[in-house]
Design brief:
- This protein is of the alpha/beta class and about 270 residues long.
- It is built from seven helices and twelve strands.
- The strands form two sheets. Strands 1, 2, 3, 4, 5, 6 and 7 form a seven-stranded parallel beta sheet that branches. Strands 9-8-10-11-12 form a five-stranded parallel beta sheet, with helices on both faces.
- Strand 4, helix 3 and strand 5 form a beta-alpha-beta unit.
- It is globular.
């Protein structure tokens, strides 16, 4: 057993998107010892209090990059020394109010910062790494279409109550990941308020319509959904699915990112 410990930290809870954006669900990380936290700022506090030493710490995925002053400062204050090694994997911007703008040295103490946000260019230690949940095996299955329009509700935010179509919720207390992915796969068009429902639907080649763009996280998907208007028929007509190779591309990028991290920490 390797003496090094990897701390995985992302958003906890039973939101399907948060639950399945954890890299350790899809990669074995050899014989490194593994520990998990689901509160980002508890992890940062433990680093500051020297409870985590000689560790590899992987933040992500999920929308845990809020470019507000407090969060930027906390990521920036992580110690840059030979004790801990820091990575982001598939983490994303998630602003729900006015942005301060990109603070480019926020992650200067990180080795690699894999961003699920798709930009034309990045600071030197950052690159595009879509959410690792693309590795879900259910996304590789074939589904028979059973409905034209399906609604995927966020676990609790921005419910879509004004449209009368079959629906499912990202709440894993109510539905399994099999249920959620199958529902998306069996629909031609997905209307949703969830980032990961959007992402998975795009990976499955669906037309995707966002009921409300309530966070900047929807702005930086590589392939853009349509924003819902009062004319749903027109929205559907102008919506394009992602290219057929989007799933394979996303898996390939994550596989390479895993290899890079493992080669670095050897």
């Amino acid at each position: 057993m390797n003496n090094k410990k990897i701390i995985f930290t992302n958003c906890g809870g039973n939101n399907a998107g948060d639950k399945y954006s954890l890299p350790s669900l899809f990669y074995d990380f050899k014989n490194y010892r593994k520990e998990y936290t689901n509160k980002i700022w508890d992890t940062i506090d433990n680093i500051s209090n020297h409870q985590y030493q000689n560790c590899i710490i992987i933040f992500g995925g999920g929308g845990i990059i809020d470019l507000n002053e407090d969060r930027s400062k906390q990521f920036k204050t992580l110690e840059n020394n030979d004790t801990n090694i820091y990575f982001h994997w598939g983490s994303g911007e998630n602003l729900t109010d006015n942005a301060l703008g990109w603070v480019k040295d926020t992650f200067s103490n990180f080795v690699f910062v894999g961003r699920r946000d798709y930009y034309e260019s990045y600071p030197p230690n950052q690159r595009y790494v879509p959410c690792v949940s693309c590795k879900l095996p259910q996304l590789k299955l074939n589904y028979n279409i059973k409905r034209t329009i399906g609604i995927v509700q966020h676990m609790w935010l921005h419910p879509i109550n004004h449209l009368d179509y079959p629906s499912i919720n990202m709440d894993l207390f109510k539905y399994s990941i099999d249920d959620i992915i199958r529902f998306i796969g069996e629909s031609e068009v997905i209307i949703t308020s969830s980032y990961h429902a959007t992402y998975w639907a795009l990976l499955l080649g669906k037309k995707v319509i966002i009921s409300k763009s309530w966070s900047t996280k929807f702005d930086y998907l590589k392939y853009k959904p349509t924003i819902l208007t009062d004319n749903l028929d027109e929205d559907i007509l102008k919506t394009n699915p992602a290219p057929q190779d989007y799933l394979d591309e996303s898996i390939y990028i994550n596989d390479n990112f895993y290899s890079e991290i493992m080669n670095y920490i050897k």
